[in-house]
Amino acid sequence: MSDHRHVDEFTGVETTGHEWDGIRELDNPLPRWWQWVFWACVVWSVGYWVVYPAWPLVSSHTKGMIGYSSRAEVAQEIKTATAGMAGQLERIRKAPLEQIRTDTGLREFAMAGGRSAFNVNCSQCHGSGAQGFKGFPNLNDDEWIWGGTLDAIFRTITHGIRNTEDENAHQSEMPAFGRDGILTKAQVADVAEYVLSLSGQAADGTASARGKPLFTDNCAACHGDNGQGSTEFGAPALNNNIWLYGGDKATIVETVTNSRRGVMPAWGRHLDEATVKQLAIYVHSLGGGK
Amino acid sequence: MRSMGSLLDTAIDAPEVREYDVEAVNRKETRPPLYVPRKKIHPRRAHGFFRTFKWWVMAATLGIYYVTPWLRWDRGPGAPDQAVLVDIPGRRFYFFFIEIWPQEFYYIAGLLIMAGLGLFLVTSVVGRAWCGYACPQTVWTDLFIWVERLVEGDRGARIRLDKEPMSGAKATKRLAKYVIWLLIAMGTGGAWVFYFADAPTLLVDLVTGQAATDAYATVGVLTFTTFTLGGFMREQVCTYMCPWPRIQAAMMDEESLTVTYRTDRGEPRKPFEKNADWDTRGDCIDCKACVVVCPMGIDIRDGQQLECITCALCIDACDDVMGKIGRPRGLIDYDSIANDERRRAGKETKLRLFRPRTLFYFALWALIGLGMVYVLLTRSDLDINVIHDRNPLYTTLSDGSIRNGYTFKILNKAREQRTLTLHASGLPGIALKVVGSEDMGDSPDPYFTVKPDRLQSFRLLVTVPPGILKGDAADLRFVLKEINTGQTASYNSLFRGPQ
Question: Has residue A53 got a pLDDT over 50?
């Protein structure tokens, strides 16, 4: 900054006094139209303060003359959207699940509603793509622990699994064979070898042969003679490629030793019936529905 | 002949020629500093070839602009019958026989690029022809000046009227002028919105107050801008607001034609004298006819300058004077810098239209144009899009088969329902299943019906038997085929499995 005035030789315009490597900035005035726009904006903003909410106060803010609130606007929009969906939701509430699935319009509506309800309520455990995680079933595949028909899915979502909040929740208990001393460590290992052989994986033949009668005595009641599983007891099939906790020997040993006990809330107590129906339709459509 | 215009214009001693009392307010030497109010320009009416040409261009451009939305084009039942329509809610752009979907916006992008390159080409050949003849700012300003002249008279009368104190007569003239301007401005804004909705319906809605707020707001904004830009801001828009004059210098070269004062012929300029010896003086008689018609307030004799929009009215004015004093026309004419230098060097002047620059611009322009025509002619009214599920990438089924999920979109751009079948290839034993369409069963090639003029989305499950997939991914090709016509559309995607 310099105090003395400097006038640019070429243009005859005063400079701002700033200089960078010999380059000076001309002190041209702002264009008049620009200034008019600027002052118009200033005047406009004053009007804006009066009409719209603007100034923050200690515990609130100025409300403005027309009482506008973006929050109220959103609430109104949601209300309008909800009112627009009321008819379809009512139809979904009344229609049997199978009818919703076969009616194109209802199905598309239910799929969209189900997807959004799934993302909000279910994706935390089952994953955003319903791909599942260890202990949380993948809902895309074709194995269903508690049944894969529309009605079975609806029931599971409504009442949940092994929870205490709903007396109609699916209940079953796998014994902790190792921990509770029902089977010895060696026996558990033998059963695990047999389970490996059931699913077609490489297994020790002699250990597996020792495990077979143990399986028949202890496991077949729920998991079936051939390990085909039972949706009645929520006993997963053991003779296929799908594993809820893992199909390697160490994990199977751990499962047999300590048992597994997956829990799911009773969503019928948290969501309305139409939403649960939409969820059932959505989950059924993921690819594994029976 | 005595002076008929400004009282201060002096008649000079040649038939029908006079020297105008006029100042080129925007020439560099006299250009007012900033903060000083604009000096009003009162351009005098010009007569001649370019003025006539400009009237025709005005008639054509305004005609196209105002009439186009009213043209009808039958597209069959259920489709709009407006020839040119930008249907934003329906997400379609109609242009006569062409119908563009939002995903085909590249046509518009292509047209805009062509418009840009066309502007480059024209500028490199004939300078700022766009500015001088076809730019909306020029056309509407010209129209507004025409109205001004109609109501208030030509230059001299307008200057007198401006100086007069306000009176009943003056107020009437002003009011009449503003009302006509306003009507034109409203017509301009009004015509714009007709491109976005069915014009006859919208006109009725606009008049009866039924139209959307957006329509009124658009008409209002365009009315305001047309009224102020055409009526009051005029040349300031070109000089201060428009970026084009700054860019254009990069497109012009020494061979570009532009409105030029021939210094070699005109100088030394001297007032007209009878029986002058034209060999010892220039042809310019300094009558300022070129300045008085200039809507930009410059003196073309100062050479090329940023303000000049090359409207060529000074050519008309000067040619008129040259004719009257018996000198050859073309003292001000379309000419190039190179020709000026050639003349000084005593060489022959020539017109070099075909130069690397113009050829390059033309080639680019034509290439894009041909590309667009090709794409348009081979445009399919059937298209598919396949989006692989992101999560999960694959699902292992109980028997060990691998299944992938896809969102599958069919774009039926035809105006009739179509029955299509889908085939996937790339892996043996593929089974396709469309979710929600049980009746198709697990047939390898499901078929679907797609409604007319519709994008329909399906969820598709592709299953491959165990042991088929080697590695974690394989190429998969989907082919969609219309059963009746055999028309196909295809998409290459991937099939994924465990690592």
Answer: yes
